[in-house]
Amino acid sequence: MYRWLTALFVFTMLVLSTSMAFSQAKPASRAQYLTVQDVEKITGLQGVKLVPPDPSKGAGGDLNFANKDGKLILMVNRSLSSDMFYSQTKNMKDTVKADVTGLGDAAFIGPAGMLQYFVSFKKGKGSGTVSTFLTFTGTVLPMDQVKKVAQLVASGM
Question: How far apart are CA 26 and CA 6, in angstroms?
Fold first, then answer.
């Protein structure tokens, strides 16, 4: 079940990332809206690294962060000119677990199953998604940290 949800989410992020690449006249500035230091401060981890996008390795975001051992911990996508990260994800079956208040204009965590690993939000004309990764015992980062990263990203929009 979790593999299916993970595959669905990764596929969705790949489609969204590709469509964003073609829809933006100017690519998003990569590390200016979220830095390694921001992620370290929120997560308490040291040695966090920004890794280049490589969907074949799971790094399908605009920004992808790994721990000191190179294991992916966080994937972030943001668009300043479209709410598609929020609206398209919200309209997919079984993606919404609960709405989140105090994050942009609207936000939710998902997927709807027993284990949540992403936050999707919209603010103004833009939107974004912040995701952690699944392990055999849960998620790499707790959802409260994923939400804090999403709040920081949204605050800069």
Answer: 30
Per DSSP, 68 falls in state: T
CB-based burial, 48-60: b 16+ in 10 Å, e otherwise: beebeeebeebbb
Residue type (1 letter), 103: L
Tell me the three state secondary structure of residue 55. Answer: helix
Whether pTM > 0.85 for this model: the answer is no
For every residue of 86-106, DSSP letters joined together read HHHHHTSTT--SEE-SSSSSE
Other CB atoms within a 10 A radius of the CB of residue 128 amount to 29
Angle (nearest 5°) at CA 151 between 46 and 23: 100
CB distance 58 to 102 below 8 Å: no
Report in angstroms the alpha-carbon separations of 136 from 93, 115, 139. 24, 11, 8
Grouped pLDDT means (10 residues each) for the chain, 157 residues: 46 44 40 88 96 91 95 94 89 92 95 94 95 94 97 93
